Amino acid sequence: MLAVLLSLTTVVSTGLGGVIALRARDRLHLILGFTAGVLLGLVAFDLLPEVFALGGGATLVGLPEVALPFVAGFLLLHVIERGMGVHRAHEGEYGDHHHAPVLGLATAGALTAHSFLDGVGIGLAFQVGTGLGWAVALAVVAHDLADGLNTVTLMLRHGNSERRARIMLGLDATAPLLGAASTLLFTLPDRALALYLAFFAGFLLYLATGDILPEAHAHHPTRLTLVATVAGVVFIGTVVALS
Question: Distance between alpha carbon 20 and the CA centroid of its chain, in Å?
Fold first, then answer.
């Protein structure tokens, strides 16, 4: 139940990202830089150690079993984003697709699906332990700000109305709550938890390095953004160490 209550904060975070997309983005690069650091720190300091501990050293085709879903999570999100044009790094990147409302709906829908998986990640992390659950929830709340921003920007850029953008923002904001609530209906054994959390770790690592950081550095001097990223890593490292 704690996982569901914490996931309520993602509604606020995602909504705030959407408001920023509609109104102002002057300092967003610093927020995105910090968020990328939080995600990187979570993967390195908390998720991967837990994944390898739960995995028990099992191997598959001569490789650590948990390493395979980790790579799969990274590559799957990369393929989805490249295939559907979810990346929005530069204004001129999509050419004629700027006025294709269906593409805007499809990409916003993909973001909503990944937000649902974020919620599942929160719920399953709490099945491992309260400390990991809090750390994952914190990271999801941080990067859902970027999700809200992306959802609204993609919808508007592809020719959808502001009303439609707000509807998709609402769906994206509530998706993590539904994902976390779904984990109240089942529990997973340690091996299955390890495989899912490894997939989720790869997913988060791609978000940090392939999505959020490039956007953070796209239109602003990189020095302050780099400082914000390091601060994010230090912050989540401190949280993990204390928990």
Answer: 18
User: Contact 111/172 with Cβ under 8 angstroms?
Assistant: yes
- For residue 44, give both structure tokens: 């390195």
pLDDT tens-place string over residues 129-140? 888 888 888 888
pTM confidence score: 0.72
CB-based contact 35:212 (threshold 8 Å): yes
Distance of CA 37 to the CA centre of its chain: 12
What CA–CA distance (Å, rounded) separates 183 from 231?
32
Domain with 133 in it: 2-242
State residue 105's pLDDT score. Answer: 80
Q: What is the mean pLDDT of residues 56-77?
A: 89
Answer for the pair 43, 236: CB distance below 8 angstroms, yes or no.
Answer: no
- In DSSP terms, which residues pair with 63 in a beta bridge? 60
Q: Which of these, 179, 212, 193, 191, lies nearest to 77 by C-alpha position?
A: 212
Residue among 54, 18, 55, 45 at smallest CA distance from 138: 45
Q: How far is CA 34 from CA 93, 167, 182, 203, in A?
A: 25, 28, 29, 18
Number of independent structural domains in the chain: 1
Residues with Cβ within 8 Å of 5's Cβ and at least 6 positions away in sequence, in order, are none
User: What Cα–Cα distance (Å) separates residue 184 from each residue in 8, 135, 181, 193?
Assistant: 15, 19, 6, 14
Do residues 86 and 80 lie in contact, with contact meaning Cβ atoms separated by under 8 Å?
Answer: yes
Tell me if residue 86 falls in helix, strand or coil. coil
pLDDT over threshold 60, residue 226: yes
What is the SS3 assignment for 90? coil
